[in-house]
Design brief:
Largest sheet of chain A: 6 strands, parallel
Oligomer: heterodimer
Strand content of chain A: 15-25%
CATH topology of the largest domain in chain A: Rossmann fold
Distance between the termini of chain B: 36 Å
CATH class of the largest domain in chain A: Alpha Beta
CATH superfamily of the largest domain in chain B: ACT domain
Bound molecules: thiamine diphosphate, magnesium ion
CATH class of the largest domain in chain B: Alpha Beta
Number of helices of chain B: 5
Structural class of chain A: alpha/beta
Shape of chain A: globular
Radius of gyration of chain B: 19 Å
Helix content of chain A: 25-40%
Helix content of chain B: 25-40%
CATH architecture of the largest domain in chain B: 2-Layer Sandwich
Strand content of chain B: 35-45%
Chain lengths: 596, 176
């Protein structure tokens, strides 16, 4: 069957199972937009290509399927650079198709020419400049294969206009060999000898901690993680990228570690004699000063990316493999050692009950460790203080939002103080319910990512918890949401500041505030929401929070924006100052510290 | 380019012969802060692939990190690490040297000692070539300094593993 490269591109995306793509047309991509008319793929017309990229990310993070964005050459392509970088940092599978000037014009500084494969080389897992229409199906299939296998990540396919217009004979690659990727061999299975050594360390540990990272979610290993924790009685911390990978309500869960993690999660890692790092990368926001991080701990590190093993911290047992596959292998080894499914610990007697006469029966009891952890949890809980009739505290907003919304609500964070309050004060009991920009910290992520998440999971309530600064970066995508009837909800924790930067200036620059003030009512967020076809609501006092949220949750036919006017001086605690040891964690602002 | 590097490793990297591959490899080194001491690229006997020989300064990053990051590049097919003590390394140098009539025969003699060649002769200049181990080339380059050097070019090193005297290669491959 003869067709144009453009038709082949759309047919390839359809064959690949794409149900939705986010994009905005222009000159170089025009041929590809023609066959979108009549395609089974839903196209969502964004207002800015950065929105398209973040929507595709939100879609991917909510569904586990690769997100697809499509943009024109030059500025269209450069507008999607931030989402590509964001997806690269957070290992999100993304396929971006960009138009390019005709092959004959490449290198001539033609109108809207940009070397986008050159620009994105360092922030994509791979990219392709297609120079022959016959290569389109193979390239699309290869792009999806690379984006979704191994450590997932973003890829970009750059398609010159003449290649889109050229005729080709349709085919579809049938096997991985047909993809022409001789250098691409992702690992999945862990080395059995290392798995055995890991289990030996597990059974010998007295103060173990499971350090669960985003890879647990990527590899769909949440059930296996839960099984491992329950069989061994080991506590679990979930990083910012792994919130929801293990239920916050579970008695074995210690919550989030890191710069704004809770005292128990941070200190458990510091005092541990064994860290079981699963799909985590020892990010500086988790480790604090690396040399002082978890000084007594042996490390088992499981990651699908071999380059992560030993990049920051040298592991005692390094296992390159897919988290789920490796965890299943560990569980099998635990079966053999006497810690089978039936030996899972009961909530009341954390510490597990191995079968007598098995290797596990001789393992040290974790009860002393749990006694310490429980004491820390009691002494150093997360705290805030809402003065009745006082200024509205952001934590109260998050807690009320959590209590009034369905348990499986998808929460999408921006970047800043509000992101940390959302992660700290929401209770994540389900996987894939927390979507945020972790590695890159991209302000403006929340609004478009929430739209993508809602497109992927229309059955779920989707709440973006955004900052006033972040909201102003990409709010225009609410026009897209209104036009496409994607009823997301946005809670702006409006503190009239670039709050996180303000917090650092207060704490580390002697309260010299430089360029962080925004204003609470410029813009008027309610009017702005209404102008974009959304419902706008404002809540200024603690008493107004519940009615505002109830009203917002009752709306299901269009997007809602709630402007919560919060106390501008509230800071995020606990905090490990940048570059400091995790031992120097500051639990609460002066005067509010809990006394041991 | 002159001067000994003490701590170095040789990576022999088989890559797909596709547009932009060298930029991907070089870009990886620069963005991860790995230092390249020298780099040589050439096609292989299989037209689908090229071979890049990279001399890595391992003071800048652990070799294992360099190799594992490099291995993630989709166009990188195979990486062989060669320890300098287990490898044969060669490099080629071309030098254009200004010589007076009196100096000319001296220089030709020097090139002869290094088993090099005079590849081009002008009225007051000679272009000479020497191939050899990087140390040999360094020595030759130092000796050239007493002449008027117009231009020197070195190719960067290429390397292959040393052969084992004690067994047939087929057998060693099978047990490797
Ligand atoms: C695109 C981008 N620019 C700058 C920053 C640096 N930055 C981190 S948090 C922050 C403030 C965010 O302000 P806001 O959205 O109001 O959130 P708040 O901290 O007040 O809750 C800034 C400027 C960033 N992360 N991303
Ligand atoms: Mg703010």
């Amino acid at each position: 069957m003869k067709m144009t490269g453009a038709q082949a591109l759309i047919k390839s995306l359809e064959t690949q199972g794409v149900e939705v793509m986010f994009g905005l047309p222009g000159g170089a991509i025009l041929p590809v937009y023609d066959p979108i008319i009549g395609s089974s793929i839903r196209h969502i017309l964004v207002r800015h290509e950065q929105g398209a990229g973040h929507m595709a990310e939100g879609y991917a993070m909510a569904t586990g399927r690769p997100g697809v964005a499509i943009v024109t050459s030059g500025p269209g392509a450069t507008n999607v650079v931030t989402p590509l970088s964001n997806a690269y940092m957070d290992s999100t599978p993304l396929v971006v198709v960009s138009g390019q000037v005709a092959t004959a014009a490449i290198g001539t500084d033609a109108f809207q020419e940009c070397d986008i494969t050159g620009v994105t080389m360092g922030i994509t897992k791979h990219n392709w400049l297609v120079t022959d229409a016959a290569e389109i199906p193979r390239t699309v299939a290869a792009a999806f294969y690379v984006a979704t296998t191994g450590r997932p990540g973003p890829v970009l396919i750059d398609v010159p206009k003449d290649v889109s217009n050229a005729l080709m004979e349709w085919y579809w690659p049938q096997t991985v060999e047909d993809l022409d990727l001789p250098g691409y061999r992702p690992v999945t299975e862990g080395d059995p000898a290392q798995v055995r050594r890991a289990v030996e360390l597990l059974l010998a540990a007295q103060r173990p901690v499971i350090y669960a990272g985003g890879g647990v979610l990527k590899s769909r290993a949440t059930d296996a993680l839960r099984e491992l924790a329950e069989r061994t009685g080991m506590p679990v911390v979930t990083t910012l990228m792994a919130r929801g990978a293990f239920p916050d309500s579970h008695p074995l869960c210690l919550g989030m570690p890191g710069m704004h993690g809770n005292y128990t999660a941070v200190t458990a890692m510091q005092r541990a004699d064994l860290l079981v790092a699963l799909g985590a990368r020892f990010d500086d926001r988790v480790t604090g000063k690396v040399a002082a991080f978890a000084p007594e701990a042996k490390v088992i590190h499981v990651d699908i990316d071999p380059a992560e093993l030993g990049k920051v911290r040298r592991p005692d047992v390094a296992i390159a493999g897919d988290c789920n596959v490796v965890l299943e292998a560990m569980l099998e080894a635990l079966d053999a050692a006497g810690l089978g499914h039936d030996e899972r610990c009961r909530w009341s007697d954390v510490g597990a009950l191995p079968r007598p006469g098995t290797p596990a029966a001789n393992r040290p009891s974790l009860s002393p460790w749990w006694a310490v952890l429980r004491r820390w949890q009691q002494e150093f809980p997360l705290t805030y203080h809402q003065e009745p009739g006082g200024l509205l505290k952001p934590q109260l907003v998050v807690e009320t939002l959590r209590d009034l919304s369905p348990d499986d609500t998808i929460v999408v964070g921006g970047v800043g103080q509000h992101q940390m309050w959302a992660s700290q004060w929401w209770r994540f009991d389900y996987p894939y319910t927390w979507i945020n920009s972790g590695g890159a910290g991209t302000m403006g992520f929340a609004v478009p990512a929430s739209i993508g998440a809602k497109v992927g999971r229309p059955d779920r309530t989707v709440w973006a918890i955004d900052g006033d600064g972040c909201f102003q970066m990409t709010a225009q995508e609410l026009v897209t949401a209104a036009a496409e009837q994607i009823p997301v909800k946005v809670a702006i924790l409006n503190n009239a500041y670039l709050g996180m930067v303000r917090q650092w200036q207060e704490m580390f620059y002697a309260e010299r505030y430089s360029e962080v003030y925004l204003s609470p009512d410029l813009p008027d967020y309610v009017k702005w929401a209404e102008a974009m076809g959304c419902v706008g609501i404002r809540a200024e006092s603690p008493e107004e929070v519940t009615p505002a949220i109830e009203k917002a949750n009752a709306i299901d036919d269009r997007p809602v924006v709630v402007d919560f006017r919060i106390d501008a001086f509230e800071k995020v605690f606990p905090m490990v100052p940048a570059g400091a040891s995790n031992d120097d964690i500051v639990v609460a602002p002066q005067g509010r510290e809990a006394k041991p | 380019m002159t001067g000994q590097i003490t701590q170095h490793y040789i990576l022999s990297v088989l890559v797909e012969n596709k547009a932009g591959v060298l930029a991907r490899v070089a870009g990886l080194f620069s963005r991860r802060g790995f230092n390249i001491y020298s780099l040589a690229v050439a096609p292989t006997n299989d037209e689908r692939f090229s071979r890049i020989t990279i001399i890595v300064d391992v003071e800048s990053a652990p070799l294992e990190q360099v190799v594992r990051q490099l291995d993630k590049l989709v166009n990188v097919v195979e990486i062989s690490q060669l320890d300098p003590s287990d490898a044969v390394e060669r490099e080629l140098l071309l030098a254009m040297v200004g010589v007076s009539v009196a100096e000319r025969s001296q220089l030709i003699e020097l090139v002869g000692v290094f088993r090099g060649e005079v590849v081009n002769v002008g009225l007051d200049r000679l272009t000479v070539m020497v191939a050899g181990t990087p140390e040999t080339i360094d020595n030759f380059e130092r000796l050239l300094e007493s002449y008027e050097i117009i231009e020197i070019q070195r190719t960067g090193r290429v390397a292959l593993p040393k052969l084992d005297h004690s067994r047939f290669s087929g057998a060693s491959a099978a047990t490797a």
